[in-house]
From TrEMBL:
Top-level division of the source organism's lineage: Eukaryota
InterPro entries: SCI-1-like
Biased composition annotated in UniProt, kind: Basic residues: 26-40
Compositional bias of kind Basic and acidic residues: 142-152, 193-222, 230-243
Species this chain originates from: Zymoseptoria brevis
Region: Disordered, residue numbers: 1-52, 124-271
Acidic residues bias: start-end ranges: 153-168, 258-271
Listed name of the protein: Uncharacterized protein
Amino acid sequence: MQSNTLDSHKGRKRSRSPHRDDRSPSRRKHHHHHHGHHRSRQETPVRLPYAREPLGKGDFQAFTPLFAEYLDVQKQLSIEDLTEDEIKGRFKSFVGKWNRKELAEGWYEPGMMERAVERWQAREVTDRAASRPTAVTSAPRAVERHTAKDEDEHAEEEEDEDEDEEDNYGPALPKKSAGPSIPSLQDLQHCSELLHSDRSAHAADRRHSLLQDRTLQKERLLELAPRADPGSRERQLEKKREVTATNRVFGEAKEAGMEEVGEGELMGGDEEGGLAGYKAKLKAKEKVKNEREIRKEEVLRARAAEREERIAAHRQKEDKTMEMLRGLARE
């Protein structure tokens, strides 16, 4: 009887352990899930300008025009010249900067997206028109079955066109007028770097010369009046005499009453603290302000010139495309 009781007791112990093992992983999972949920609560979302939404990998097709414009303006790269892996890496970096609000505020504007889409569509039309002549050249072989009469007429037309080209032959007109051109952003940046390097070199030379002069003065002073050995009685007497002389000068200045002040400082004369000094300070401030405005205007002019060059190149490309389309329509 006692052995049966022990066996049943052992069985209850064995039956309890699997249940405990099954229950412990669920507790651990629930514990980890609770902490993960707590961490997600602490993350504060970044508020993007113009209430724009964060981007992901799936937004590549929708934001391809804006991404291509970003590569052209910020990185001076063309999306057509990049490989697929490079495009993925660049777009991943663009998405990270977009979501972290590290881009300029202008990239978040809805109007910027619309302009990028228009340029992208115009580029697609241009590329489609450029690839179309290859399909036209692969037309049916009916062209080869021209009669001799048609070939003669075609030859005569080519001769007429050659004569027209000979009439229009001549030196090409200059595209740009002679004279100084507007400096670009790279030129302005190079100029500012040169000025900064010149100022740094001048300041370093001045510090070096002052240090050498100070060292020379100390050497001359030690030669004229050498100091006693530190810790000796003579050195202690020198320190005492220096303290006494300092106290005497201070007492004499205190007994003399008010310190004499120059008339220009009191009445606003021509000294540094007077009206002339105040006018000189105002003039220096205005000069610094004017220099800043001039640099700002130069940067704006350079950006405007680059924008005009980009627009002119785009228009020239569009004109060539339209001429190509007209030629195809005439054929």
